[in-house]
Amino acid sequence: MKTYRIATIPGDGIGKEVVPAGRQVLEALAATGAGFSFEFEDFGWGGDWFRAHGEMMPANGLDALRGKDAILFGSAGDPHIPDHVTLWGLRLKICQGFDQYANVRPTRILPGIDGPLKRCKADDLNWVIVRENSEGEYSGVGGRVHQGHPIEAATDVSIMTRTGVERILRFAFKLAQSRPRKQLTVITKSNAQRHAMVMWDEIAVQVSRDFPDVTWDKELVDAATARMVNKPATLDTIVATNLHADILSDLAAALAGSLGIAPTGNIDPERRYPSMFEPIHGSAFDIMGKGLANPVGTFWSVVMLLEHLGEHAAAARVMQAIEAVTADPSLHTRDLGGTATTAQVTAAVCARLAATASDRRAA
Ligand code: NAD
Ligand code: K
Ligand code: MN
């Protein structure tokens, strides 16, 4: 029987609640005849590690992750440590260290969940946002001079390379091609950002020639926000820069009902390194430690993890279990207007997996 080696990194805040819940779902899946097993290793990196060791993860931390089949991540962000320290010291160190350059963010309205768009039918909102995850606005290049003085100047330099832009556009065209509508929207801000974004548009035209069966269009990022709200059915696969897609995907999650249900994969498409799966939300300081976190975003990330491992039947089983649970309003957490706890939702998904396993045995 195949054994997958999975690293779990809960990190901070509600990451410490939702990642153990995600692991429970994977364990329930393996226990119900999935035909494979997991070997987990848990890494206690994050704010607590920083207080003890002065860094968010050990200097050789990537070496400990290198041999894993996948990583399940929670959140980096601690109320007592500046956000740029926690983010760059942990999550971005892994994403950039393992060149996980494609960040894939599916969004759709799950059964039983009401989005804020009253005119939108569930089928009208079914998107995958592809986020460039290795450079651009989050290149980390820049600095401050004359700090604290009136003449202080500061820069965050957005670096886009032809190689980096071409590989993410190629990935997005390929993903669009694999979906039923074969449709891609390329989002830029090439009217105002007249260098890198113009290059992005040019490369999109070049890459599109290799995908004649994909219908594609361009949209400026500000107009794209309005289109997401007013005409959601006109979008399918979307590709955008690191910063633009970061913002658009929180909007997408909110339109689909809650930040708490949205998943993501930080993917190395060339499979040189392990890929990392996580809910798109952060540490949620306002609800941490209270058992109120919605674990659905983590469970959906587990589905993406299973798909990445090639376990498509198991992935479909977990997705069906999630949808059966969201369809029941008594199992909605507070962000969805309900009263269920993280533990209750987790138990319900695990029970559903057990039930479908006995159905399969009976069949
Ligand atoms: P956040 O996602 O943590 O929270 C935003 C709002 O959404 C809060 O009101 C929160 O309660 C709610 N929310 C988020 N996830 C939820 C869930 N699963 N269930 C129910 N409600 C949920 O964003 P923020 O407040 O901007 O950031 C808090 C910290 O998290 C910061 O330190 C930030 O840097 C960090 N962060 C980390 C990541 C990451 O590691 N990938 C992503 C985003 C934010
Ligand atoms: K996260
Ligand atoms: Mn974000």
TrEMBL record:
Cofactor names: Mn(2+); Mg(2+)
InterPro entries per UniProt: ICDH/IPMDH, IsoCit/isopropylmalate_DH_CS, IsoPropMal-DH-like_dom, TTC_DH
Pfam families (UniProt xref): Iso_dh
PROSITE patterns from the UniProt entry: IDH_IMDH
Matches recorded under SUPFAM superfamilies: Isocitrate/Isopropylmalate dehydrogenase-like
GO MF term set: D-malate dehydrogenase (decarboxylating) (NAD+) activity; magnesium ion binding; NAD binding
Catalytic activity annotation: (R)-malate + NAD(+) = pyruvate + CO2 + NADH
Gene3D superfamilies: Isopropylmalate Dehydrogenase (3.40.718.10)
SMART domains in the record: Iso_dh
The enzyme's E.C. designation: 1.1.1.83
Assigned keywords, A-Z: Manganese, Metal-binding, NAD, Oxidoreductase
Family according to the record: Belongs to the isocitrate and isopropylmalate dehydrogenases family.
UniProt-recorded name of the protein: D-malate dehydrogenase (decarboxylating)
Naturally occurring in which organism (per UniProt): Piscinibacter gummiphilus
